Amino acid sequence: MEPIYLDHAATTPMAEEVIQAMLPVYNEVFGNPSSVHSFGRKARQILDGARRVMAWSIRANEKEITFTSGGTEADNLAFVGTALANRHKGNHIITTNQEHHAVLHTAEALEKQGFIVTYLPVYRDGKIAIEDLKNALTNETILVSIMYVNNETGIIQPIKEIGDLLRNHQAYFHTDAVQAFGLLEMDVKELGIDMLTVSSHKINGPKGIGFLYVKENVKINALQYGGEQERKRRPGTENIAGAAGFQKAVELAIQNRETRRNQYQIYKELFIEELKEHGINFEVNGDIESTISSIINISFPGANVETLLTNFDLDGIAASSGSACTAGSVEPSHVLTAMFGKDNPCTTNSIRFSFGIFNTEENVKEAARRVSRIIKRLR
After folding, report:
1. How many CB atoms lie within 10 A of CB 226?
2. Of 88, 209, 290, 308, which is least surrounded by CB within 10 A?
3. Count of structural domains within the chain
């Protein structure tokens, strides 16, 4: 039985072109990019080229790109680094109650240091209300962090409206764009974004590398101590092979953005149609018209997440109950709890299916047929 991977929101397989871009670096480039000799300069050239591509992808300046080990470190740097550097202007932070744990747990840590954090609600459609953000802003607010696309539901937040609201406020605007990058067009200046997080392994690049865009005027403290790499924001010798692979992944994502977006939308529609044809009782969580094309979160009434995922796996289907960071946990989804309340059954009967470049129309339909058989059997 062919295994079918429908968990691309957790991580993606590396594209063959990415692997081929990295191999020569592993084989031929070992210099430290901070060294002034020819070996170091060769490594620096690769790193600078990758940085230029990252900046180009979001219409930023290359000096505004800081390489990190991935999305979590980038979120932490944006959140903690900005809070500590701007504490003299206030100690109030705004985020939402459905953020990735890289933000939520960081917010909780800052609360222990005396910062005041407001957690905006999300509603049944999966979105925040701009009016709630307006009402939460104060003269003490120094940071607003709201994710671009939710990693469990795929719901797109009103980023442009948030950016416009904050243009004349002292608060910096950070967005975790890990799930959005590569499928949605981004111009950080036009959107009014001050900091933006991207992770390589979500776009068919290598694990262990990401970047944080930091607008040139943003005051931010480094969280680690050591050398002066990454404009003194992130010390440590850079991951040159990872940067080369990340660059290729970004180039492919931007080049194929519209094709991928349309193809994933077809996959989503085929998957839903197949469930309907087999008479499966289900509900899509959140406003499906506001979701990114690669993610759908489905509630199966009367089912149980653990049982579903176990049976899916036995039948060769890889899916998730939500965030990859809480995979295996029996606790209700904090995202769906935020949307529907803690006692709503969908918090423990919902599955996230997410599509990627190695899916096909046929294996998506086959996955839906297997899911349908399992749902009927478990009843």
Report:
1. 11
2. 88
3. 2
